[in-house]
Amino acid sequence: MKILHVTQGYTPAIGGTELLIQRVSEELVRQFGDEVTVFTTNCFNGEGFFNPKLPRLQPGDEEINGVKVRRFPVNSRISQIFRFPQKVAYRLRLPFNQHLRTIAGGPIIPGLKKAIQEYSADIIAASSFPLLHMYAALNGARESGRPCVLHGGIHPQDDWAFQRSRIYSAIQQSTYYLSNTKYEADYVIQQGVSPERVAVVGVGVDPEPFAQISSTQAKNHFGFKEQPVVGFIGQFGGHKGVDTLLQAMTLVWKFFPDVQLLLAGARTMFAEKVENIIHQLPESYQKQVKLYYNFSNEEKPLLFYAVDVFAYPSGFESFGIAFLEAWAASKPVIGCRAGAIPWVIDEGIDGLLVDYKNQEMLAEAIIEFLKNSSWATTLGNAGRQKVLSRYTWSKVAQNFREVYVEAIRPDNTK
Prior knowledge:
414 residues; alpha/beta; Rossmann fold; 2 domains; 8-stranded mixed beta sheet; 6-stranded parallel beta sheet; 18 helices
């Protein structure tokens, strides 16, 4: 099968969708011998879609682990111009505000639709909403008479991003829609999408790199001693709850003053706010916080093994690959009772749930794990078993391919 994936970023770009499409593409090549091409941008992350000052990758063609990759240059200046007008239109709920939001979010990629239309592939699949390239993929596929599968990554709590009727209109025009969880699938169906055109595929992790690392080895690598470590490992963004975690830790430190806090992720614009919060802490607390930016994929298993409790108090997740990565390292997790996360974490079995932006509840959950290390270990081990049985990239790629095979049947082509 010849497959064209269209997505906002591809390794070395960082993000959950970026990793998902990379690993699914590689598995389709490895397991099934499919010919997979990825059309993507030359940005390292979504901030590059509207910030022309950020560094870029080189546009052009390359091959990575058997996957053909074409990076298109993004015109971020147009999106930058629309950033302020869309805020005003959104605040006033003007009728055209969803279109301004789409332009402001980007990525604006000249020539993308034409390139999709002309590219020889059996199926075109695009990830993820609310970004502009999704419409180029849908229109390019339809105008060239080929099936289009959309993978949205929708988390409805993000009103700015996902309360847009044009998203659900596009999904209704696609051949199939792929959701990460049943929660997302049910939401899309509520928006009028036919249930028989919606499939749950999940996300995955590679458990092998996590198999032969000890916590002592990992802690030594990052300069920790044997004291407990609470960790956040993921993208630094306003909705990810890093600020709430810092506030919660001021309560935790009253009971466990020697606990270390590890904050690891790509350095984004929000990271400056995180640093300001840290600098406002008492000096004794500041010494307990370790910031670790822009780590490599090879370091990721070490980071997860270095922590004793993984706290990821995000409010907007279509799944949360970071939970799987923590479980792959047999770590107990704390997430928020928001969006798809309760469909990922089985509360009291492999993790705990707290209210979003509730620092007191988050602190209580962290303290419970620190007080009951054997219970925390039991939950972490249960999480690892769930990963091995349901959430490896090999299984997730099979889920994607089953939908692709169904989509290219002649009676499914629109």
